[in-house]
Design goal:
Largest sheet: 3 strands, parallel
CATH class of the largest domain: Alpha Beta
CATH superfamily of the largest domain: Response regulator
CATH topology of the largest domain: Rossmann fold
Distance between the termini: 60 Å
Number of strands: 3
Order of helices and strands: HEHEHEHHHH
Helix content: 55-70%
Radius of gyration: 23 Å
Structural class: mainly alpha
Amino acid sequence: MDFFETGDSALKAMRQSQTDIVVTDIRMPGMSGYDFLRLVKNEFESTVPMVLSGQMDEGAVRALVPSKDFVMNKPCSRDELVRRIRSAIVQRENLVTVRRKLSEERVVEGLELLLRRGLASGLVNFSDLPDYLRASLPLDVSFDTFGILDDKLDLSVLDDLRDR
């Protein structure tokens, strides 16, 4: 857990390492909490923003924070803050899981298209297929995901092309 005096210093640190959750005030030195939340929302889609403030425009905050549970008025008890941060952790884990699954689905669709084109054109031989698939994976897809693809990838295209 890190603490920062300004939004700029927090953003600088967030650009250096992954931040799961950020709790901000609305009134702070330098930039406003609203501006800070806009930047967090635009630059750090996996970070869950939370607000702890004594003075805020709730409508403006709600447009920048994913859940009303992540908006707290000062004073806020320690137990309440911990409960809401735990809730934010669960929401972030769910968000990351959904994004990963969507990414895997796009990779599967792309690889199936590559297989069809590569095999149909004769540019790829069956013996080169494992190397071709690995080389075709986007850089942000791990080989762990490649293992998952075995179950999801529709390899019936191979049978169709082999029979031709």
